[in-house]
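DEPOSITED CHAIN:
***
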Amino acid sequence: MCSITINQKADSTLNDQSQKDKRMIESRMIGFAQEASVERTGALDIAPMTRMPPDLKNIRKKTVGRHRVYYTGHHSKCTYNIFFIKEYKKSGVNDEDDSSFQKLLGKAMSQLSTRTLTTSD
């Protein structure tokens, strides 16, 4: 069971959601982190972003409902950090190719975690 944290930027976005969406996003991400361990990969380890510039290659993305949750981390360190949540993905729109969105992700990724959603055993 690995830990997962969230930074202030993503937490602010999460708190702006309805209680139903907030619970759904938190519980799904906690569940994904809990299924991983130092010895075993989990769902959060198999979501690489392939078209990112070199400084953002360690970013991963998980779709939860219609939201996209961006995070870093790996099961071998048994910790993940949510740093950005993109609300309500529109079909056919792919922000990952947009350089201004990539800069936004880089800036958000540099913010330190402020809240722990779950801790590792």
The CA atoms of residues 53 and 98 lie 11 Å apart. The mean pLDDT is 88. The first helix runs from residue 8 to 15. The two ends are 6 Å apart (CA to CA).
